[in-house]
From TrEMBL:
Keywords: Cell membrane, Membrane, Transmembrane, Transmembrane helix
Annotated localization: Cell membrane
Name of the protein: FUSC family protein
Pfam families registered for this protein in UniProt: FUSC_2
Domain Integral membrane bound transporter, chain residue ranges per copy: 384-506
TM annotation in the entry: 31-62, 74-92, 98-116, 149-168, 373-397, 417-435, 442-459, 465-482, 494-514
InterPro entries per the UniProt record, alphabetical: Memb_transporter_dom (IPR049453)
Family: Belongs to the YccS/YhfK family.
Organism: Streptomyces gulbargensis
UniProt keyword Cell membrane present: yes
Transmembrane helix as UniProt keyword: yes
Topology relative to the membrane: Multi-pass membrane protein
Amino acid sequence: MSWLRALKQTARSGFAVERRRLEPLVAARGALGLALVVGVALALFGPAVAVSSAFGAFQAAIATFQRSWRPRPTLALASGASLAVSTFVGYLTGAHTLAFLVLLLLWTFLAGLAWAAGPTAGLIASSNVAMMLVTVTLPTSVATAAGHAAVIFAGGVVQALLVVLLPVRRWGPQRDALADALAAEADYARRLRHDPVAAFDPVPLMTARSAAAVTPREARRRPAELHGARGLAERVRPVLASLADPAVGVPAEGPERDRVRELLGAAATVLDAAAHAIRHGEPVALPGAALAALRTPDTGAILSGPPQRAALRLAALLGDVLETAEPRTETAGARPPHHPATLTRPTLVRLVPVVLAKVRAELRPGSPVLRHALRVSAVTAAGYLLGTALPFGHGYWAPMTSVMVMRPDFTQTYARSVARFGGTLVGVALATGVVRAAHPGLYTSAALAVLCAFGMYLLMRTGYAVAQVCVAAYVVLLLGMVGEGPPQTVRERVLLTLLGGLLAMLAYAVYPAWETPRLRGRLADWLAAAGRYAAAVAAGYHVPAGAPGSAVREALLGTPAARVAWQEAVGRATHEPVRHRGLSHAVAEEAGHALAQFGRAAMLLEAHLPEPGAPPLPAAARLAEALRRVTERGAKAVRERREPDWDELRRTLAAWDTEVPDPVLRKAARLLLEALDDLSGALRNG
């Protein structure tokens, strides 16, 4: 893709507005916290302290909107505390340009590395640097700076208390994540009726798994219906695929296929009912016709063999889903935190060594996070020096823009740069027009600023440009409280915002971290993860354990995670203005399809795992070992730009065909080899 086309694509994505479900009550709660903090600070301490407190409460509320599964009060407190520390430390060196520049370089570098811990940590850290650049200009002494830091932290405390005192949909994000996973499987079942080999997007299941991890304290308070449905959903998916696939199930047409379509439709209805009950915390509206279709006795007369076993397993799993989704009066304490089905999440204190380990892992040449940290720290320092040297005054707006728009990948950095400038232009113009027309007083300006913050909280998930309109107007009104005139604000903010965005875009062009050259590595990671999953499933035939054991489940978790990482990498690479080095877009699509089929074949094998007490299958151990070895060697070959060799698996399957009596298992194992051959063909063509 050429640079001109890449710029057009990123600009279009930056100005895109998505239709999202708005949360006015949550937005109103954040605005209420901001209004309380600003109002009290304004009445007791004056406009300068009110502005500092506003930044703390504003940023703490934004933290509660992030896509994190941490408790919202924890996010608000972490944001307020970290911003207070950043502001105070920044003020200690703010009077000395060189000392502050060194601190700014260090602080921004650490904020860039914080992206290793996840987007929420990265955003909070980046926002702290941006807010620090503004707030260190407000105090006049060390004691005053400590007071400003205290009111900033108080803003975080107020937002945290409001989340506790005015809850809106307790466990709402977790309910939505689990309900979305069940709804995605319902949609999958419907698509399988018409396309027996339809693909399934693993993102909803991965999101539900992330949402299911809880701290010990949360495990005692979590609603009972959020306990087990996620694990059941993971087990339903391979059964649905096995029931529908003609390769290991019933013929493509005929009475058996009609019966399978009926079962898939009933499964979709049941899954939708469970999703609705979990999302709203209501009793399950039992779909009588669907339950009758699943339990009708003529299934055994129409289906036989593996399809019949799959149908019986499906009915049993759906029954468990309905039972789990039913709200109960018991508390989550009925399930102890150490229960093997509970996914544990470390507390913030225990999370520190985990984050440090992730950061250390990124301190290596070629790491996108390390490149981002170096890039954003250099750009922020350059922007600060340029802003100070230019005759506009308040030069912190240029580095503040840079640190807020820069991300570890090209698309987000360029899209946010363009969107921030456009949103700033509109927001500043609107706020200036209001100020000039109405000449609001101190308290009226504060009220208008709170109203702009409410608009930002309400619309922030619909698009970055829309949110920036509200943010720009908020800053203009807020800084107007401490005496900055609108004409000066317009000129400075627009020009310095443009400068900061251009610096961010130039830095990525000069020192990029392109995703395109890393596509082979992402593909190799997916191949290795899929190979471990297939090997674990095959080993389950050698030592039958009934339901998928921990080894299969653990291996399965790595596969969708690697697949999602591959899909995200391909999405980022699609918009990069670089020629491919190793994988073109067409080859990447073919290779991804081949590995998806490999995962599907392994999933079909999982759906037919033998019951406990079934006779072991010695040939399965050899198949598992062959799968593990060839996929490990194949992943290494993909990274080294060599053609993978599957001959060992081919020889193993030749013996498997003669030793395994079940034709379904033979066919599913053969599909594994066919998918790997397709992968080799795609790479060979590229």
